[in-house]
Specification:
Layout: H1 3-9, E1 16-21, H2 25-32, E2 43-48, H3 58-63, E3 70-72, E4 84-86, E5 92-95, E6 101-104, H4 116-127, E7 131-135, H5 144-152, E8 156-160, H6 169-177, E9 182-184, H7 186-196
Parallel strand pairs: 1-2, 1-7, 2-4, 3-4, 7-8, 8-9
Antiparallel strand pairs: 5-6
Helix pairs in contact: 4-5, 5-6
Enzyme class: hydrolase
Domain CheB-type methylesterase: 10-200
Catalytic activity: [protein]-L-glutamate 5-O-methyl ester + H2O = L-glutamyl-[protein] + methanol + H(+)
């Protein structure tokens, strides 16, 4: 674990990691998530902007590349440590105070449903300082408010370096709204995720 990662994780207890991405996000996630060991002790929940009019194969695609169990989140499904969850298309994904998922079809946020802000804000309210939020490449401001809520609740916030992102709009929006704990390129985010195993 590098000095940067040690400083970010020192004294922290993390129960869940929420990740938001849009344009260019699949490539970034494929570079980050496969590093996670099968017995990674946290829940990892991902919102990737998807078209509403087609089924998602993200869970299937990522399960072929990850040691951890991967599934599509469903309404009332309880979160389990050591699993990766993807938001389904056409629904906002929230985390309730009892650490279960809820789905809704409320209006899009930043033209997106699922919206990163919806997941991150609800996760911050549920997990507080025991949450880590990671925002990757994308072409909207979705995720900026969610990352700010995570920070306000004491959680860890990491934004992809805009110079490293395929589309810098989303990382820049988050950085401008509230400075994150770290701004890192994808290789360093991957190392940070692997280092989280050491603080369990």
């Amino acid at each position: 674990m590098t000095a940067v990662h040690n400083a970010l994780l020192a004294g922290r207890k993390i129960d869940a990691v929420v990740i938001g991405a849009s344009a260019g996000g699949i490539d970034a996630l494929l570079r980050i998530l496969p590093v996670l060991p099968r017995h990674f002790g946290f829940s990892v929940i991902v919102v990737l902007h998807l078209p509403d009019d087609r089924d998602s194969r993200l869970a299937e695609v990522f399960q072929q590349r990850l040691a951890m169990p991967v599934r599509q989140a469903d309404d009332k499904m309880p979160l389990e440590a050591g699993s990766v969850y993807f938001a389904p298309p056409g629904y906002h994904l929230s985390i309730e105070r009892d650490f279960s998922f809820s789905l809704s079809q409320e209006d899009p946020v930043h033209f997106s449903r699922p919206a990163i802000d919806v997941l991150m804000e609800s996760a911050a309210d549920a997990y507080g300082e025991r949450l880590a939020g990671i925002l990757l490449t994308g072409a909207s401001a979705d995720g900026a408010a969610g990352m700010a809520r995570i920070a306000a609740c004491g959680g860890l916030t990491v934004v992809q370096d805009p110079l490293d992102a395929e589309i810098a709009t989303m990382p820049l929006a988050a950085i401008r709204l509230r400075a994150p704990d770290a701004v890192l390129p994808v290789p360093a985010i991957r190392t940070l995720m692997a280092a989280m195993k050491e603080i369990q």
